[in-house]
Design goal:
Layout (H helix, E strand, L loop, with lengths): L1 H8 L4 H18 L6 H8 L3 H8 L2 H11 L14 H10 L3 H20 L1 H29 L12 H16 L5 H15 L6
């Protein structure tokens, strides 16, 4: 039985998977998480609901994986410029201003849903937050190994909080979407000094 299930799960090609994720994100932007249904995803993607449930288990996992898949340019371990500043700048430059604005709007819409839906929060932690935190820790550990950041720096455990905070607060405080130039200047003015890294 397990072998059959595995065979069934492997039938969706990477191209088809990307197409499904794009449709899920489009629907999320149109109607929001609560109004998004597996029926709507099935109709939009010309899939059967049974296929969607078999592949993803349910709406929370499908949405979390769609958001994770939407991250541009691979993962942080693929970036190794030789400096922490270079790595964080390279990470920021993977998304252009248009993508950042779209992602910011999407994450604002999902923020309330995450708090109201324990299953979505669990899926987000498993598929998005924990992998992202592990990647940031690897980038930071490289900086520690190079001698750029002290291992006992108290700001180290808040690096991801700082990065996400800037992304979210840009719209809240300045009523503008996050941009590459804003985030690059924030990294140089706030994140790196907090970590004891000189930017001049």
């Amino acid at each position: 039985m397990t072998e059959t299930a595995t065979v069934r799960r492997s039938r969706i090609t990477p191209e088809r998977e990307a197409e499904l994720y794009a449709a899920v994100l489009d629907l999320l932007r149109e109607v929001g998480y609560d109004a998004l249904t597996m029926d709507a995803v099935a109709a939009r993607t010309r899939s059967s609901k049974a296929t969607l449930y078999r592949q993803w288990g349910g709406k929370p996992e499908l949405v979390a994986k769609a958001v994770r898949h939407n991250k541009p340019g691979g993962s942080l371990p693929d970036i190794d410029t030789g400096t922490l500043r270079g790595d964080l700048h390279a990470l920021t430059l993977r998304s252009d201003d248009c993508q950042m604005e779209q992602n910011s709007a999407l994450m604002r819409g999902l923020a309330m849903a995450v708090h109201d839906n324990p299953d979505l929060l669990k899926a987000f932690k498993e598929h998005l937050i924990e992998p992202e935190m592990a990647e940031f820790k690897r980038v930071l550990q490289r900086a520690v190994d190079r001698g750029e950041v002290r291992a006992d720096n108290p700001a180290a455990e808040y690096m991801m909080h700082m990065m996400i905070g800037a992304f979210a607060a840009r719209t809240l405080i300045d009523e503008q979407p996050p941009t590459q130039s804003f985030l690059l200047s924030y990294i140089d003015a706030v994140v790196l000094p907090a970590l004891g890294v000189h930017t001049t």
